[in-house]
């Protein structure tokens, strides 16, 4: 442990005097560099965490955290299986769905979309009650569908207009021929619930209408399961797989989006390493300033040695001097970084107000909104990394000071 005398000498060595101006300038730049590096790391990691959360929310959307599917024939008797899964502790909701590709024709325009059939209560929950039952309830007899405002603009339609949906269905004895099936639907609502990564290619319809449209009477294509903790979704995967049996395939949102999640993690690690170079450069400046300090203090070191100071005392004095720069810079950088990370959303709002990042399509619009989430583990890693680099930077100059021969240092004084 460093004693009071060693701390006093170390602090005096850090104070700037006219003949030591260069040393103090380099030490000040080192402190500023460490503070800047730590603050930048914290802000960048917070923004990356916020971006990842946004992206995961968009990936999951209003889909479940787990999907139980049984192939093209669909799931027969899905009500009983859904009830058994819903009884598992931690399962929040089980949603029967039908999801198929359809072609939409409207006013001479033809698009390929994803149609999702949902139960009436689920459809009302997701869209705020904008869609009605399978028989429309709107007076025209046609089932109602829900699309996003952007898709409506692309198709040139609005609420109350009719759309013709066309989907190929298997025909013939061996299911080789494709016989198109048509259905006419009325737009019951324009809902922001369908806005997302696939908002411009997605439409929602009542489950009963989807069963008739896609030839799946009494069946659904999948069961979507929402759990209490999406971050620990694997805790439910095995149990639901055993319950469903061998004829079903259970996949969670991480498996579906594994490539993107790995890419995000690699980007996060690479960003951490790159930004850490700022702290590394500042640590190298500490080495430079300490080497210069040792050279300027050679006479003082020799006098201290002749007065009885041990090599260990000299070593601790210079380690304390250099480490103080790192500790102070890390503390300042942490405070500034935490403050900026907490205010990053306000900064994003100010950027948006200036018109920067405008004009994005609906799929990329959320990229222009800065969000942040500070993780305690990230803060600890950044702080410990900065402190470790600062400490390591003091070792060589301190060892050089401790090994200085008093006779040689005073020979030419």
Structural descriptors:
alpha+beta; elongated; 6-stranded mixed beta barrel; 413 residues; 2 domains; 14 helices; two-stranded antiparallel ribbon
Structural overview:
The chain has 413 residues and is an alpha+beta fold. It folds into two domains: 4-58 and 260-410, no CATH class; 66-232, no CATH class. The chain has 14 helices and eleven strands. The protein has helices at residues 4-14, 21-60, 78-86, 120-127, 149-155, 207-213, 234-244, 253-256, 258-296, 298-306, 311-342, 344-353, 376-402, 406-410, and strands at 66-69, 75-76, 91-106, 109-118, 144-147, 162-171, 177-190, 202-206, 219-220, 222-227, 249-252. A six-stranded mixed β-barrel has the order 3-4-8-5-7-6, surrounded by four helices. It has a two-stranded antiparallel ribbon with strand order 2-9. The longest helix has 40 residues, at 21-60. The radius of gyration is 33 Å and the shape is elongated. The model is unreliable at 130-139 (pLDDT under 50).
Ordered list of secondary-structure elements with their pairings:
Layout (H helix, E strand, L loop, with lengths): L3 H11 L6 H40 L5 E4 L5 E2 L1 H9 L4 E16 L2 E10 L1 H8 L16 E4 L1 H7 L6 E10 L5 E14 L11 E5 H7 L5 E2 L1 E6 L6 H11 L4 E4 H4 L1 H39 L1 H9 L4 H32 L1 H10 L22 H27 L3 H5 L3
Parallel strand pairs: 4-8, 5-7
Antiparallel strand pairs: 1-10, 1-11, 2-9, 3-4, 3-6, 3-10, 5-8, 6-7
